Amino acid sequence: MTGPATRAETCVVACAEAWRGDGAVLASFAGLIPQLAARLAQLTFAPDLLVSDGEATLLRDGQVEGWLPYRSVFAMVAAGTRHMMMGASQLDRLGNQNISCVGPWERPKSQLLGVRGAPGNTVNHPVSYWIPRHSPRVFVERVDMVSGVGHDRGAHEIRLVVTDLAVLDFATPDRSMRLRSVHPGVTVDEVVAATGFALSIPDDVPETREPSADERRLIREHLDPRGLREREIA
């Protein structure tokens, strides 16, 4: 293991922090970096975290730990014992997410995934988001269609939004989006320019923590020796 942390590795650690303190909940994810993050959290500061292969198997350090049929996942969603890190094609300042379409839903310009499980996720259990390309096309004043609900529509908890530039949260009086930290080498002005609405910005914005030597070793040698993480934000 040589060399400083890359931006992708900083993003892995930032995503992992979303599950800190969760205990024995099911960590679900969309994307390689959140998957690596959940596994890293389980191996380090969150040993009780449940991590699945996305189908019906629970894994610990790459080994089968148990069976989790899909019907049990629905039970965990309803009970609030899951924390999902989803993606978003659009996200607004109050956390409303769109993964359904671009343009008016009656006559969209582009058809996307559809709402999928986003409504149930956002009203029943904590949700975070991973955005590999922070841009005004994603961070919009108003989403074209609400798939996952935001804090103005009864979201349970939207904990973190991690992007290739920064970490954001909703620790404001009106639960609107706040700049929590910027990744090393990124300025506050760059994040503001890449966001299509007015962020809440504290007087002092810290840098996102970089992975420790042990975390870098786990990421590089154990979790992702092929370095596929670097392609997700390239």
TrEMBL record:
GO molecular function: transferase activity
InterPro entries assigned: CoA_trans_fam_I, NagB/RpiA_transferase-like
Keyword Transferase: yes
EC numbers for this chain: 2.8.3.-
Keywords: Transferase
Pfam family name, one: CoA_trans
Signal peptide: none
UniProt cross-references to Gene3D superfamilies, sorted A to Z: Glutaconate Coenzyme A-transferase
Top class in the EC scheme: transferase
PANTHER family given in the database record: ACETATE COA-TRANSFERASE YDIF, CHOLESTEROL RING-CLEAVING HYDROLASE IPDB SUBUNIT
Family membership noted in the UniProt record: Belongs to the 3-oxoacid CoA-transferase subunit B family.
Stated name of the protein: CoA-transferase
Lineage: Bacteria, Bacillati, Actinomycetota, Actinomycetes, Micromonosporales
